Each structure stands twice: as structure tokens, then as C-alpha cells.
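Structure catalogue
Derive C-alpha cells from sequence
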Amino acid sequence: MSRIGKAPIAVPQGVEIKQAGSAVEVKGPKGTLSQVIPGGISLRVEDNVAHVNRDGDGKRPRSLHGLVRTLIANMVTGVTQGFEKKLEIVGIGYRANLQGRNLQLSLGYSHPVLYSIPEGVEIMVDKQTNITVTGTDKQKVGQVAAEIRSFRKPEPYKGKGIRYVDEQVRRKAGKSKG
């Protein structure tokens, strides 16, 4: 039995989990999220606790058991607390500005980089060098943060670029004379 899959999911007050066929919908104070559950996995909700069970002992249900439980737990967390990723911009002249639903980045290129913010994700810019990506869907928040970081990844010699706040950039020594 999967250790992660058999762990119960606590459903806080104000969160509602509905299952219609193979789709699971989680409603909470911050919004609604839905996920399709693959065959061989079932969801049971009783007394503000959700349990994810697998129907058989086949390879596919066993491999998806923990994944489905984690996805549903992330949906519950997303509609109650939300998720956030913080990025920082390092480099002279590098900065970010919000223009409506677009993020404008000046990253040392000959042109500014425009990034269109997708639905369900909010971006805040603080002091032109700190970017905070927030939302209810963990996968979408992580994807948006990764796309923003990919415009100018931190380079190893001076450390310039866009990095996660807790990221350690490995530095290299420059050229040495002689």
C-alpha cells in the first residue's frame, strides 16, 4: 500500500469536495479547482476527511495512488491558502513592471520582454526586482514562475538573471591571468 496514498486528506471548514464520474471538483473560499481521476482510483469523503483508495493491486492503480492523493490535497490547499512562488531579479538595469495583464521585463536585451499573465494567476512586483506569483493551482503557479525565470536564467560568473528567492546559484571563477 502506498504510504502517501493511504494518508487521509483533512477537509477544512468551508471546503466542499464533489465527485461526478471520474471528475473531482473542490470548492473553497479562493475558488474552484477540478481534476480528472484515472480509472482504478476512487475517492471517499466522510466527516471532513477524504480517503483515496485504489480498486485493485495492478501496476497502474498502484503507481497512481499517491499521485492522485497528492493532487487532491494540493487542490484543497489551493482553494484555502493558495500557492506562491517568489522570484528576484539580479543585475544592473534589470527590472520588471506590470502593465495591466502583462509583465514587462528589462533583462539586458535590445528589447523589453513582454509576458502575458494567464488566467488564474496573479503577479505582484515589488521594488522592480522582486516578483511574486500567486494562485490556487500549484502546477500553474510553478509553470508561470518557471517561464518567467527562463527569460534570463542566472549565469554562473556574475549571478545575473532571474532566480527563485531560495535558489543557490553555483558560481564559477573567471579567467585567471597566467
Observations:
- The chain has a mean pLDDT of 88.
- Residues 26 and 150 are 31 Å apart (CA to CA).
- The chain has two domains: 9-80, 83-164.
